[in-house]
């Protein structure tokens, strides 16, 4: 690790990260954390605290493997961007050009006399899939269409619904949209559809593409869609909160579905990996497409990916609506949305000190990363508590990181 002062950060102030996150651990709210800060391409904070298994009293380690859930999405976005800049498609192309099952979609209007009422949908573009504006949704949302997703797609919050990604996407295309494409922001399975697009365009399975084109070049040796047997001892347990502020075990490594390769490799939420691995991906984005001598994307492509893609027609703060629906209180994020990740547009609204243009996302079990281009800063914090937002892990990590900047 580098001396923090050599990149304009305070060693003393960086110690507050461990103390702040440690209060959540000591209170029994979360099992443990791995946190990392890099500035100007140099790691200045990399710390493991607490436990990866409360029951077995196993300590959290820097190389602990975590369920990334939706933190998979930016990786999928990078895969799409790689094919985009090779000229395989335009982001404005209708996805039906490559996945014809999306040619004749319908939009849900309501029910009348027990019959579902719909209207023909406009074309869904690849860009809309990548920005959650395609009219798709998720099965965990308490809406009529969300219920259909849960029933037909087997609640696609899991690593792998049955059958194949091709069959899953075909089943999805039979369901109605929640809105006309391009008119509303709805958090969705769009990135899972993009995984199928990668397969069709590249001729490879989605997992093979990620392995050969992203993980291997970046040296992400512990990232994939399952945890091999020889790495299970590093796999963290997953927890859910209890009413008294404690935790209960939700998924143990020895019985987890992640022990086996999934039938379907989901681009919206299927990956597992370490903080160190994810740093390599995040630093590649921070470096505008290059890491360790390997260039995955062009500078302008990364700038396109990490820009806000929502027009003024959309709400100023779509994530407020998202987390309000999920019981998160509708707290303001001050962010728009880029390709598969959020983009800070108004730090004052967010209540956090990240710079405008900061690109970020996280996962359902409370994993987060962000890239602040103005400060040349990468931050990552992982724990395993489902759902995300139960405690302000992301907010604390950002606040305690930014207060350590002295230059």
Task: Please provide a written account of the structure.
- The protein has 407 residues and is of the alpha+beta class.
- It has two domains: 4-64 and 205-402, DD-peptidase/beta-lactamase superfamily (Beta-lactamase), CATH 3.40.710; 82-202, Methane Monooxygenase Hydroxylase, Chain G, domain 1 (Up-down Bundle).
- It has twelve helices and 16 strands.
- Strands 3-2-1-16-15-14-13-12 form an eight-stranded antiparallel β-sheet, sandwiched between helices.
- A hairpin with a 4-residue loop joins strand 12 and strand 13 (342-344).
- The chain is globular.
- The protein starts with 10 loop residues before the first helix and ends in a 5-residue tail after the last helix.
- The model is unreliable at 156-160 (pLDDT under 50).
Order of helices and strands: HEEEEHEEHHHHHEEEHEEHHEEHEEEH
Poorly predicted ranges (pLDDT <50, ≥5 residues)?
156-160
Record field, number of beta strands: 16
Instruction: Sketch the major β-sheet.
Output: 8 strands, antiparallel
Characterize the overall form.
globular
Radius of gyration (Å): 20 Å
- Please write the CATH class name of the largest domain: Alpha Beta
CATH architecture of the largest domain: 3-Layer(aba) Sandwich
Note the topology.
Elements: H1 11-26, E1 32-39, E2 42-53, E3 58-59, E4 66-67, H2 73-85, E5 106-112, E6 115-120, H3 126-130, H4 144-153, H5 165-173, H6 190-202, H7 206-218, E7 238-241, E8 247-251, E9 272-273, H8 275-286, E10 290-291, E11 294-295, H9 299-305, H10 318-325, E12 335-337, E13 342-344, H11 347-350, E14 359-363, E15 367-372, E16 377-382, H12 393-402
Antiparallel strand pairs: 1-2, 1-16, 2-3, 4-9, 5-6, 7-8, 10-11, 12-13, 13-14, 14-15, 15-16
Helix pairs in contact: 1-12, 2-6, 2-7
């Amino acid at each position: 690790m580098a001396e923090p002062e050599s990149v304009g950060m305070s060693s003393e102030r960086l110690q507050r990260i461990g103390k702040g996150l440690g209060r959540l651990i000591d209170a029994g709210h979360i099992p443990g954390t791995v946190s990392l800060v890099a500035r100007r391409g140099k790691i200045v904070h990399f710390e493991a605290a607490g436990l990866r298994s409360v029951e077995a009293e196993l300590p959290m380690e820097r190389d602990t493997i975590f369920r990334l859930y939706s933190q998979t999405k930016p990786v999928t976005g990078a895969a799409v961007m790689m094919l985009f800049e090779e000229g395989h498609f335009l982001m404005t192309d209708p996805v039906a050009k490559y996945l014809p099952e999306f040619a004749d979609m319908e939009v849900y209007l309501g029910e009348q006399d027990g019959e579902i009422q719909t209207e023909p949908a406009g074309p869904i573009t690849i860009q809309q899939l990548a920005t959650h504006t395609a009219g798709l949704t998720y099965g965990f949302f308490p809406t009529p269409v969300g219920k259909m997703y849960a029933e037909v797609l087997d609640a696609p919050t899991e690593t792998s619904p049955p059958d194949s990604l091709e069959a899953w996407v075909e089943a999805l295309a039979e369901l109605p949209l929640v809105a006309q494409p391009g008119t509303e922001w709805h958090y969705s399975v769009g990135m899972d559809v993009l995984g199928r697009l990668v397969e069709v365009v590249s001729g490879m399975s989605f997992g093979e593409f990620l392995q050969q084109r992203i993980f291997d070049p970046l040296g992400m040796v512990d990232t994939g869609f399952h945890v091999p047997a020889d790495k299970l001892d590093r796999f963290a347990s997953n927890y859910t909160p209890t009413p008294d502020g404690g935790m209960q075990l939700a998924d143990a490594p020895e019985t987890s579905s992640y022990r086996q390769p999934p039938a379907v490799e989901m681009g919206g939420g299927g990956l597992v990996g370490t903080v160190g691995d994810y740093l390599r991906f995040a630093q590649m984005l921070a470096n505008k497409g290059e890491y360790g001598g390997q260039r995955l994307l062009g500078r302008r492509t990364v700038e396109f990916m990490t820009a806000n893609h929502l027009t003024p027609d959309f709400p100023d703060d779509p994530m407020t609506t998202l987390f309000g629906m999920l019981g998160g209180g509708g707290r303001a994020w001050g962010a728009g949305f880029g390709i598969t990740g959020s983009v800070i547009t108004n730090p004052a609204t967010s209540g956090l000190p990240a710079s405008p243009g900061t690109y970020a996302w996280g996962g359902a079990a409370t994993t987060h990363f962000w890239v602040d281009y103005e400060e040349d800063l990468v931050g990552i914090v992982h724990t395993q508590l489902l759902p995300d937002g139960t405690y302000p892990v992301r907010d604390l990590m950002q606040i305690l990181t930014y207060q350590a900047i002295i230059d």
